[in-house]
Model the fold of this input.
Amino acid sequence: MKRAGILNRHLSGALAELGHGDGVLVCDAGMPIPDGPRVVDLAFRAGVPSFAEVLDGLLTELVVEGATAASEVREANPAATALLDDHFPGLELVSHEKLKELSAHVRLVVRTGEAQPYANVLLRCGVFF
Done:
């Protein structure tokens, strides 16, 4: 049994399979999930687990070389905006429609219970060396 880090066996296993350049969509409970990518659904109740909790946990285990979010987050969700800006100084912004298109090509989708709008980010995996 693991003693630390992400304990969810499905999520931990999915993260171990990722490689350089793979995409991971961390999304709120309302984001449409495309057919194709592996999905780990962590949603339990509205707001649980939160986008911030899941993102922080993922960032302790992943090397991320880039991130993309919907530009609509800036106006609709100040808390998510601050979180994303804090973690990703070079955050790329696209329309929400474009983010949904891009999500069809990710390798993994991690769905949170977040119930605030536009709490979504597409992470691009890097390498640790």
